[in-house]
Amino acid sequence: MVENENNIITRASLIQPDDLLICVSLEGKTMAVIAAAKEAKNNGVNVIGVTSKYNSDL
């Protein structure tokens, strides 16, 4: 689990395609979480986003 916004994108770039990244954001608008999800997705990682909003950016 990564709670420090400064480390989240770095950690996302280190996970492998056979890993799963679960991103949690109340409204799905936290830019660091969105950037980490995109970085992981670009590296072939499966990503699950959990938010309280149906049409969030995440």
TrEMBL record:
Coiled coil: none annotated. It holds the Pfam family SIS. GO terms for biological process: carbohydrate derivative metabolic process. GO terms for molecular function: carbohydrate derivative binding. Gene3D superfamilies: Glucose-6-phosphate isomerase like protein, domain 1. Residues 1-58 form the SIS domain. SUPFAM superfamilies: SIS domain. This is RpiR family transcriptional regulator.
